[in-house]
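User: Can you predict the 3D structure for this chain?
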Amino acid sequence: SAWTLLEDRLGTLWAGTLGGGVVRVRGGVFTRYGEKEGLPSEYAWALAEDSSGTLWAGTDRGLARFDGTAFRTVPLPQPFERPSIRSLLGDPSGGLWIGTAADGLLRWDGTSVSRVHPKEGGRVPGGVYALAPWRGGVAAAFYGVGLVEADTAGHVKVSGRSEGLPSDLLWSLHRDRNGALWVGSDGGGLVRVSRDRVETLGA
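Assistant: Here is the predicted structure, written as structure tokens:
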């Protein structure tokens, strides 16, 4: 089943599937990339294009980079060598924000990796199923925690039910052209966050 879609800067459509690897659709031609083509797993939960135009795939057995012909597994530094990835987002500096199933929110700068939330030694919350650019950093949808905002300087803000969100169980995020952040929750409806105002639009 197709889980995630990405249109790259050249207009090529990519689909990440759960069990079928990554599928590229270009000029009406479908090309499938699986473990034989370099993916660490056939379960590709996340796709992202970084600031240089490189395509990345996040799987349940780690990260892979597309080199134009095939995918190449990219092991991260220990202890996050092959995390089970659920979401990816490139940042303007060339790094990657990485949302995981069991290791929280990570940031990789191409050399080192750090856990942004929770901090090292903290209890790992639920999976991070979506990421979106937000206020010079990233917004992360944590399932079981709520909305986590972070930047490259290490500042973190966590918002949940006590801060006005209808649910801590978040699935999806989208930042619109006006700068508002749309949040999809499990059981709490659709939420719009704009200028620190939280508005629930429906359940």
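The longest strand covers residues 128-134. The radius of gyration is 17 Å.
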